[in-house]
Amino acid sequence: MTHLAPTPDAARQAAPQGSAGSSRALRIAFISPVFLFPADAGGKIRTGNILRGLKESGQFDITLLSPATAEQQREWQAELDRQCQRFVRWEPSAPLPRWRRAPDLLSALPINVAADRTPAAMAAVQGLLAAERFDVVVFDFVHAAVLRPEGLKGATVCFTHNVEAEIFERHAKTAASAPLRWLWASQAAKMRRFEREALGRFTRVVAVSERDAKKFAEADGLTMARAIPTGVDLDFFSWQAPADGSPTVVFTGSMDWEANVDGIRFYIDEVWPRVRARVPNAQLRVVGKNPPASLVQRNLPGVTFTGFVDDVRDHARDAQAFVIPLRVGGGTRIKAFEAMAMGLPVVSTTIGIEGLDVDDGTHFLRADGAEALADATLKLIADGALRLKLSRAARELVEARFGHRVAADVFGRILIEAVEAAA
Question: Model pTM?
Fold first, then answer.
């Protein structure tokens, strides 16, 4: 069959309302497998920033669908109103203990994907999409693709926050025992297959870095992947000059995410003793929810775990060094840009800063391995002029290129592109 290109007039008539030149806002169904509040993890923060930017633009009418209790919705309704015109919830399932999740290891799906496929979530998504017509349906995180109804028509977008298979592959390389390495490798193979098959069904795939978009294209043949910049709320994370005073090192991040646990365990075991040997009064503050008891109960000299905090700024402003000692992970670390926006000098491994367009020695210090991380941390503790130089250059960079409205604008253009491609 021969397919004829439409004439310019026909193309304009077929173009979706809400695209360039249209007065009607584009109707979006945005499906997230997690409730976005409190914004205590990188993915929640990134998604929240994008949604706020999209709504502020006035070009999009957003229906956000996610798990939440009625109490959670009431508590966070003001913040939800900043992100969407309408919020629809499904009742979340109670978290299962690890032993109850063990059968999921036998599933063809990766274990974290299988956990999201609950009857309540499936029914809520199917019900909303059957009852209303949207210009584009967005699934947040690749896990959410498991909730996509069969036969869904029209424009669809998956917002990926990582190349998930790559995270599992990195865990397989760094795991401490042969059984754990086998387990991570098995999950990596399942995730690689799931990502390839699930993402291939979307009109567009949004990646959080050019690197991730290229990975999807090279490994999975996903030529519909498009990258957005990592955006940070520059008003909330206002700049101030790096602190002098008591030597303090800070890490922020959810401490129930395995990559963060691995990185902090490595830093505490192999880096921190080197720092304390040179600066005996140095303090390490680990800011993030649900730190594992195996770390907290060690009561290591100079190490404090805050657990969940309402505002990370209150616990980070006095630091001379902000460390990102990750050895596994994927996507981009929004915590890096938050720290840079606040004026905190950053020390990071290559993986910790991966996917972010920043320069070593100008915007942050790169350090891989225990000795290099210790040396870089000590350098920032000792050198106020270096701290200020990195702080100013990093803030200038994020102001110029990585505000959350910039990221939302790019995301919005991808949504419009998806609608036009589907039409």
Answer: 0.73
Per-residue pLDDT at 20: 45
Identify the burial level of 263 via C-beta atoms within 10 angstroms of its C-beta, where 0-12 means exposed, 13-18 middle and 19 or more buried. Answer: buried
Boundaries of every domain in the chain = 26-231+404-422, 248-401
pLDDT 10s digits, 209-252: 888 899 898 877 888 999 998 888 888 899 999 999 899 999 99
Indicate the CATH number of 248-401 among 3.40.50.2000, 3.20.20.450, 1.25.40.340, 3.40.50.720.
3.40.50.2000
* DSSP designation for 228: -
How far apart are alpha carbons 275 and 247 in whole angstroms?
11
CATH number attached to the domain at 26-231+404-422: 3.40.50.2000
Which position has the token pair 């910049």? Answer: 229
- Please calculate the CA angle 274-276-282 and round it to the nearest 5 degrees: 135
Cβ burial, residue 311 (10 Å; 0-12/13-18/19+): exposed
**Residue 399 exposed, middle or buried by CB count within 10 Å (0-12, 13-18, 19+):** middle
pLDDT per residue as tens digits for the range 38-95: 988 888 989 999 999 999 999 999 999 999 999 999 999 999 999 999 999 999 987 7
* DSSP conformation class of 217: H
Q: How many CB atoms lie within 10 A of CB 171?
A: 22
